[in-house]
Design goal:
Blueprint: H1 7-25, H2 31-50, H3 58-73, E1 92-94, E2 102-105, E3 110-114
Antiparallel strand pairs: 1-2, 2-3
Helix pairs in contact: 1-2, 1-3, 2-3
Length: 128
């Protein structure tokens, strides 16, 4: 890691990259959606400046921010690739405030992927 880049900036860049990877995997990384990521990063920069001990939680928080913003504007994201039957539902980020965030399906009770590691949209379970 570059010692001239602060731990805060490293965490913010990593969070941006992880969430963008999941958006790309879900084929929803349009310019307006990427702007949502940037808005979240700006807000989380301020948040971590106020609470430096939370630097390790930034990736999960940015993922949740983008998920909330997408829900308000477009609908649920990311959709669960595990549950093939029933109503489509979004994955949740766990822990809500903690390190090592994962996308989880509460219906099936499973971790689906680490934030930043969602499978490409075409590579998931077949739709039924």
């Amino acid at each position: 890691m570059d010692p001239s880049v602060s731990p805060l900036e490293q965490a913010l860049h990593a969070a941006r990259a992880l969430v963008l990877a999941d958006l790309v995997a879900g084929e929803v990384a349009e310019a307006d959606v990427v702007s949502l990521v940037e808005e979240s990063v700006v807000q989380r920069r301020w948040w971590v400046e106020q609470w430096p001990e939370g630097v390790g939680f930034v990736a999960g928080l940015v993922a949740q921010d983008v998920q909330d913003a997408l829900l308000e504007r477009y609908g649920r994201w990311p959709l669960c690739p595990v549950c093939g039957a029933g109503d489509p539902h979004a994955l949740d980020v766990e822990p809500e405030l903690g390190p090592d965030p994962h996308w989880v399906c509460h219906k099936a009770g499973v971790k689906v992927a680490a934030v930043g590691s969602l499978a490409p949209a075409g590579g998931g379970a077949p739709a039924s």
